[in-house]
Automatic annotation (TrEMBL):
The gene is LOC102594679. It comes from the Eukaryota. InterPro entries: MADS-box/MEF2_TF, TF_MADSbox, TF_MADSbox_sf. GO terms for molecular function: DNA-binding transcription factor activity, RNA polymerase II-specific; protein dimerization activity; RNA polymerase II cis-regulatory region sequence-specific DNA binding. This is Type I MADS box transcription factor. Residues 1-48 form the MADS-box domain. Residues 157-172, 196-210 have a biased composition (Polar residues). Signal peptide: none annotated. The keyword Nucleus applies. Residues 87-114 form a coiled coil. GO terms for biological process: regulation of transcription by RNA polymerase II. SMART domains: MADS (SM00432). It comes from Solanum tuberosum.
């Protein structure tokens, strides 16, 4: 909302000044009421008209006096805790704007140096650059080198070992149980060296092996 230019009413007649004052006071009271409703706060306005003993108060003289009395009853440190001078307020606004401008300038410079770096890769001569551009390119090169070194360190790290779930699945298989069985291992070792084995009976033989390992005649 654009601010209106204030008029100098010192050369106006008293009736015109009083008329302007009445309109401005009405508008001010309306804004005060909106502020008290929207923010749920107590607002008191006291205006002293030149040459008048009775002040103009909102909402009423008694309510305004009550708010003013409670305000004055507070300690000075409590009253000025959130008090901000207009000069301090403007200074804070200016500092905030300066930070925003500095941030935008930094972003623009980074984009400019990145574009300039790409142009050099495509074949632009480095002799065309000034001192500021050279310093910016050095920062870009340093940042890219740091990223490359970080990526190299990540590639040097070993792969993650197999999880415990995979080991459990392997040992739960039937073949894995056989490999862990001592009887199966001893039996396979015995068969491997030929000891403890007997020739298997042929189809035409009339002998058979008993339960005790000795042969017996078949009837």
């Amino acid at each position: 909302m654009a601010t209106k230019r204030l008029r100098d009413t010192r050369n106006y007649s008293e009736d015109i000044r009083n008329s302007i004052l009445d309109r401005r006071v009405t508008s001010l009271f309306k804004k005060a009421e909106e502020l008290s409703i929207l923010c749920d706060i107590e607002v008191a306005i006291i205006i002293f008209r030149p040459g008048s003993i009775q002040p103009i108060a909102w909402k009423s003289a008694s309510l305004a006096q009550d708010v003013l009395t409670r305000y004055l009853s507070c300690e000075a440190n409590e009253r000025i805790k959130f008090f901000v001078k207009h000069e301090t307020y403007l200074q804070r606004k200016a500092e905030k704007k300066e930070k925003q401008i500095s941030k935008l300038e930094k972003m623009n410079e980074e984009k400019e140096m990145e574009l300039l770096f790409n142009q050099l890769v495509e074949g632009k001569s480095i002799n065309e650059l000034d001192a500021r551009q050279m310093k910016g390119l050095l920062k870009v090169c340093a940042a890219k080198t740091a990223k490359i070194n970080e990526r190299k360190e990540q590639l040097k790290q070993p792969l993650n070992p197999q999880s415990n779930n995979e080991n459990v699945t392997l040992s739960a298989s039937p073949m894995g149980d056989l490999f862990n069985d001592s009887w199966f291992i001893e039996t396979m070792a015995t068969l491997g060296d030929g000891s403890g084995t007997e020739s298997a009976p042929t189809k035409g033989n009339d002998t058979n092996v008993g339960d005790n390992g000795h042969s017996k005649d078949l009837d």
